[in-house]
Amino acid sequence: MMKKYKNLWIALGVLVLLTPLGMLATGTAWGEWGAEELLEMIGFMPKGMEKLSNSWTLAPLPDYSLSALSNGFSQEAAGYILSAIIGVLVTVAVIQIIGKFIPAEQEGANE
Amino acid sequence: MHIPDGYIGLETAVPFLGAMIPIWRKALQKIKTTLKRKHIPVLSIGAAFSFTIMMFNVPLPGGSSGHAVGAVLLAILLGPWAACIGVSLALIIQALIFGDGGIWAIGANCFNMAFAMPFIGYYTYKLLKGNAEHFSKRAVFAAAAAGYIGLNAAALLTAVEFGIQPLLFKAADGTPLYAPHPLWVAVPVMMFEHLLIAGPIEGAVTALAYLYIGKTNPELLGVKGQKNIGSQMKEGAAV
After folding, report:
1. Which residues of B touch A67 (CB under 8 A)?
2. d(CA B168, CA A34)
3. Mind giving me the DSSP string for B146-203?
4. Chain segment A60-107, per-residue pLDDT in tens
5. Is the predicted pLDDT of residue B14 greater than 70, yes or no?
């Protein structure tokens, strides 16, 4: 699994290490404002939004940040990279589980 | 492009979840019957790539930000159904673990970025590539254009989903219940950003990653005989 796609894993690793570049864009994506930003923008909080906006408060790493790493850019960058690593590991783990359901006899059938 | 909870009402969010369930079921079936075990590492890397590339926010005109998605690249490499699973997984993990995109909005976000985008991108790639070889100049152009069009299709869907909210759902006092900007604001703003900046970035990311795979693992698209740059250079030195 590792050897054949070594260059792809390496490229993914490099991307993960570069993710803090994505922190340099500080603006919020259009339509994804937090409550205060929206309040400032339109002067009120839509009633339906108020009810729904806190539907999920269990995200352990909100905004790709760790609360222990929130002091200055380098700590936040480390938190961002760690978030990327965690995201990548969970993603890969779930795909591996899905892959277990692919019958082994298909392996290399067309090689 | 990750719709947060509250920006679309349950009247919109739940039907999208309902639409995604048969799509996910079909996609899983397709993976089971058409992918091989050896493709699983590629799908892992692809889904992880999509997750990671979405963390690269770029500044957009008007002070907002956006990012590439990677869905079209996955579709070119593994087919649109596998891409649907890979990008859906990335989006679900982003919502659950990182609070990026709403829980209720998972259906709409997956519909936009993990269904519409890879399918539209995939068929754009096929159409523009025509009979040209994979990794040929024309195919690289097709990959870039497919990324551009796929991302803009997802952005347009997102903008429409935002824009219909204030038209359809109002509180008793007439104020919008959810996203406040109507279609004629949401669509031009989102499309301006994505046609101009985010789309070209998606196109470039798609083409560059495609070229990279052409160098390292062309066998993924059934292209044989090409060796990676390293071994070519070694051979050259030996000669």
Report:
1. none
2. 22
3. HHHHHHHHHHHHHHHHHHTHHHH-B-TTS-BSS----HHHHHHHHHHHIIIIIHHHHH
4. 999 999 989 989 999 999 999 999 999 999 999 999 999 998 877 544
5. yes
B212–A11 C-beta distance less than 8 A: yes
Exposed e or buried b per residue across B120-159, where buried means at least 16 C-beta atoms within 10 angstroms of its C-beta = bbbebbeebbeeeebbeeebbbbbbbbbbbbbbbbbbbbb
Cβ atoms of B1 and B65 within 8 Å: the answer is no
Q: Does B66 touch chain A (CB under 8 A)?
A: yes
Please give the biggest Cα pair distance in chain B. 81
Tell me which architecture the domain covering B10-226 has in CATH: Orthogonal Bundle (1.10)
- The ipTM assigned to this model is 0.93
Hey, is the C-beta of B217 within 8 angstroms of any chain A C-beta? yes
Calculated CA dihedral for residues B57, B105, B42, A17, nearest 10 degrees? 30
